[in-house]
Amino acid sequence: MPVKAAYDEIADWYEGQFLGEQRSDPLGIGAALRELLGAGTGVCLEVGCGTGVHAGVVRELGWTPVGVDLSAGMLRYGRERMPVARADAQRLPVRDGGVDAVVAVMVHTDMPAYPAVLREVARVLRPGGVFVHVGVHPCFCGSFADRSDPAAVVIRPGYRERHWTKDSWTDQGIRDKVGAAHRPLPNLLNALVDAGFGLERFREGGVPLPIVLSVRGRKNSADGEVTGSA
Q1: CA–CA distance, 73 with 67 (Å, rounded to integer)
Q2: Averaged pLDDT for residues 41-47
Q3: Is 19 domain-assigned?
Q4: Which pLDDT band, with edges at 50, 70 and 90, does 225 fall under?
Q5: Is 63 contained in some domain?
Q6: Quick one: average pLDDT of 178-200?
Q7: Which of 18, 167, 169, 221 could form an S-S bond across to 143 if both were Cys, CB 3.0 to 4.6 Å?
Q8: Is the separation of the CB atoms in 58 and 33 below 8 Å?
């Protein structure tokens, strides 16, 4: 699968250089997890965990982090930070209702079949369990968004079309190396609702226009009601 091969190839760069530039959390990813996942106990599964860089925040909140990813190269680093398994996000090696929380952090653009992944997340999450999506903001990031001038982001036509591309305004990021899937905001939010999540909270991060959109959803019960506390 192309995404797997690409991430295997860039795993050392990702761990050694790319993550080093993100340690100050300029996109507010750690803040989003603290706010939307919040304190809790039990197993929190990270789908597309990569090198496991977010495990520390999850553990700090009281959860027990475990991760799955398709890339063996990324998991070489991930297993140093939490228990991991190599698996396809559309076929998680977890029983129905087997985990208390799930997070997907900056990975939905790597998953053209993200709606199917969300349905699988709903399967393994207990009723009332929390799912936190943290991802590239579909409105302000993509091949249609030129962010080369930090003071004047230019949004060109292209937002409304779903697509996969390696076109990027920078050669220092991920998209130009492995490609990225784009789906407009309504498509993304509808996929969450269709998978059986009641949407509870939202957060944006990054400047001058948002780079990250985060969403907290809660798995509906069998009768369609959202259970659990906010």
Answers
A1: 14
A2: 98
A3: yes
A4: low
A5: yes
A6: 96
A7: 167
A8: yes
Per-residue tokens: 210: 């948002």
Domain interval for residue 91: 2-137+180-219
Rounded to whole angstroms, the Cα distance separating 73 from 185 reads 31
> Does residue 34 lie in a domain region?
yes
**Is the residue at 100 inside a domain?**
yes
In this prediction the pTM is: 0.92
Residues with Cβ within 8 Å of residue 131, at least 6 apart in sequence: 101, 102, 103, 104, 121, 122, 125, 197, 216, 217, 218, 219
In this predicted structure, what is the pLDDT of residue 230? 42
DSSP characters for the chain? -HHHHHHHHHHHHIIIIIGGGGTT-TT-HHHHHHHHT-S--SEEEEET-TT-TTHHHHHHTT-EEEEEES-HHHHHHHTTTS-EEE--TTS-SS-TT-EEEEEEES-GGG-TTHHHHHHHHHHHEEEEEEEEEEEE-TTT-STTEE-SSTT--EE-TTTTS-EEE---S-SSSSHHHH-EEE--HHHHHHHHHHTTEEEEEEEEE-SSS--EEEEEEEEB-TTS-B-S--
